[in-house]
Amino acid sequence: MITMRRADTLGNAHSDTLILRCHFAFSDYQDPAHTHDGRLRVLNLGTLKPAQVYHLGPEANVDILTWLPAGDIVSNADGFEQEKVGQGGLHLLSTGTGCKRLEWSAGPEGATFIQFWFMADVEGVPPAQEVRASFPQLEDGGFRILASGFPEDDPEEEGQITDGAPVTLTARARLLHAIIPAAEGAAYSTTLGRDLYLLVVSGIVTIDGYVLHCGDAAAITDQQDIVVIAQEKAELLLVDVAAR
Question: What is the pTM of this model?
Fold first, then answer.
């Protein structure tokens, strides 16, 4: 089953200094019809002005993934070194036993970000941080795994990471990315008991006869296989999470 979430139906949440566009209830945006999608608790879109800072905390037992469509940010969390993330980069903060302060500040050109929160499946672990500056695109335009809680998705766990290997989640989840040329498609298969959530970052796509424009999303349940066709060049993010 596919349930559409159009861009113009998203909620607005006032969080710290920002007004966020929210797919699920967050801060002062409360919507009983949209509280989460499986173990995906938060999907927020935000824009930071030059040098503007976004604060959160305290948080525990969630994996917070921040992906940048444009601009650059510097992350700053208690107990961790500052990390700079640019366009197309990904920042992970697994809050584990607890982080008192989380902070992202924009560079001189500002930044837009998309933030995902996954409910952890492994609790009681120390907080952890990972950053990827970029991810090489697949030649066939298919889905590439950006973050995963499945060890088999990252066979090279030792040594310095130079190939854009996925960041490691404490949630049994995946975040995937695709750039699909016009008139081409990308397929993905999951297993029983999983939910998929597809977000169109840019372009226009179709899935099972539904048309999604930039900013639209589709919640996919009780369906293991999907094929997304680009009507024009499209950039997508796809979440694969446990349904419960």
Answer: 0.94
